[in-house]
Structures are given as C-alpha cells and as structure tokens.
Amino acid sequence: MDYITLAKEIVSLYPFGSPDIEFIRHNENITFKITDPLNRNCYILRIHMPVTDGFAGIQNTFEGLQSEMIVLKELYSNNVIHVQEPVKNCMGDYVTVYNSTEFDVPCLATLLTWMEGATLSVEEDDMEAAAFALGEELAALHEFTRSYKPVEKLSRPVYDGNRIDFAMDELQCGVERALYSMEQYETIKEVLQLVKRQLIELDSRKNSWGLIHADLQFGNVIIHNGRLGLIDFSLSGYSYYLFDLGSASSMLPTEWRKTFLNGYSSKSSFIMDDLRYIEGLIFMDIFISYCFFIRDDNRNGWIKTNAAELCDTLCKDFIQGKSVYYSL
C-alpha cells in the first residue's frame, strides 16, 4: 500500500469529505498535510510508523500518543505557548487505531491543526528578536510543566542517566560499522560518564526536572507574523529543563545564544553558571540522536563526520573542563 492510499483510508475516519492530501515526509512519523475542501482548513496527519527502528519507543505506543495528545490539549487550552490543537476522529478519540491486512500490527495515527508560518532559519529578518522570543516561549513551557499535574500518569520517554547507559551500550556498534574508532568511542563514553555525574548534581536541585519538548531544532519552530510556535512534540518526555536549553542553543548561531538565554531568564530562573551543565546535556542530546540511526546503514553516514569533528576537539576540551558552549 502506498502512503497516499494509507492516508486516505485513515482520513476517512475523520469528519471530512474528500480532503486534499499532500505527503510531507517520513521520519519518526509519516506526515501529510490535509486540506478540508469545504472550509480550506488545514491539518497535519501523522501515521506513527518510524522510518527506522531507532525511532521506536514508548512515544509510538497507544499510551504514549494518548499522553502526547493530553499534553498538547493542555498547552493549547491554557494558551501557554503557541501549539497545534489535537483533533478527534469520528469516534471521539484523539488516537486513531487503523487495522489493515497490509500490516502485522494496527496503524496508529493522530491529527493536529496546521500551524501557519515558516520554519525558523538563520535567514530570519530579525534573528535577535526571534532568539529572544524562543527563550521566552521555552521558559513559558517549562514554567507550566513545573506546576502541571496530569489527571493520569503520562507515558512518555525519559531522558536520564539510564538513557545514557543505554546509549553507551548501543553506540558500541558504531565501532563495528566503522563509523568511529574504538578510541573515539572511548572518548564518547568518557564524555557521557562525565555527564552522568552532572545529572546526579542536578538531581539535588529543586524543580530541575519535568516535562520538556526534547527536540528543539529549526524545523520544529514556526514563525508567523512575528509570533513563534513550537511543533512536533513526538519526542517530548521527562528530563532536565536544561536539556531543552541545550538542544535549542545548539541549533542557534553562536552570536544569538546569549540573546536566547536572556529571553529564557526573563521568564524563568537561569544562571550563567549552568552553562557547564548545558554543555553536557548538548553532548547527551547529540549521542542519543546517534542511537536513532546507528543501525541503519542507509541513514547513519552523517555520524562518521560528526563523531570525527567532536571526538578530536570539543569532547576532549569538555573532558578537560574547558568551556565549549559557544562552539558546540
């Protein structure tokens, strides 16, 4: 079954006539833009079949998707930040279960409202304002989740010391696949062991841990008429709030990182002494992302280049206690 046919069959379970369906991409989900012909309202359909086994996890289970929809609905209803609204199917459910003889297991799908705008890029006319606003938006998200008490327990990924242990074990296969040398792997492991010690320090702090976005990159930040919005909460889960600051910082050009942190600190607590922790969490984020692709030889080529750049310079600097925040 081709993607468009699959999307048509799943969309038939929603209250549309004969919508226009446009394939977007296949990554952690298969995504489509859906346009209602009657009112021209647009939506994004996500069929939760990851392109590679590395993306499999609790986030793609029924319980995980149900939890993601609960969080998005809360963020949308309370106008915490600009996010997409989950849409119910004809049965009144946010998570659609579609059975097909084409697949061994049921397909799970979710539908969200479309967010108008363009993805954030370094070509932005006023990048300084955008970086500051991104910090404010992220702070608003964190301040909300610090006090958010879901009615039921959420099933979402956890990014903690155990996730680092998993990554260290999983990344050994990168040596076997000649993506990096044993010496480079040992460097990666030394960095992650250092980060684990940092996490123990963060555990002693009040309000350092909670629900985060966990996948902040240019493609997941939408800007429209000067307003920023966050999309793609597929990998959202529980971790240290500084993890989000790390992933957001690493996507921004060096000259706008301080502005971003200023935006964050204008709405939430942050001290510059925490840059050392952010550095560690950036490394954690990078090496966890290796795990998504490392066993997929059609998609793991970039790891070889990235590991060579990191292991021979910034990893060693970090281990030696040098500041690398503005270089990562």
Brief synopsis:
This protein is 43% helix and 15% strand. It contains 10 helices and 11 strands.
Please, could you describe this protein's structure?
The protein has 328 residues and is α+β, with helices and mostly antiparallel strands. It folds into two domains: 3-114, Phosphorylase Kinase, domain 1; 127-319, Aminoglycoside phosphotransferase (APH), C-terminal lobe (Aminoglycoside 3'-phosphotransferase, Chain: A, domain 2, Alpha-Beta Complex). Helices cover 43% and strands 15% of the residues. It is built from ten helices and eleven strands. It has helices spanning 3-11, 62-77, 127-147, 161-170, 173-176, 182-203, 241-251, 257-265, 275-293, 301-319; strands spanning 20-26, 30-35, 42-47, 86-87, 96-98, 107-113, 118-119, 209-212, 221-224, 227-230, 237-240. Strands 1, 2, 3, 4, 5 and 6 form a six-stranded antiparallel β-sheet that branches. Strands 7-9-10 form a three-stranded antiparallel β-sheet, covered by helices on one side. Strand 5 and strand 6 (107-113) form a beta hairpin. Helix 3 packs parallel to helix 8, helix 4 (161-170) packs across helix 9 (275-293) and helix 6 (182-203) crosses helix 10. The radius of gyration is 20 Å and the shape is globular. The N and C termini lie far apart (42 Å). The relative contact order is 0.13. Residues 24-266 form the Aminoglycoside phosphotransferase domain. GO terms for molecular function: amino acid kinase activity. Belongs to the pseudomonas-type ThrB family. It comes from Paenibacillus donghaensis. Pfam families: APH.
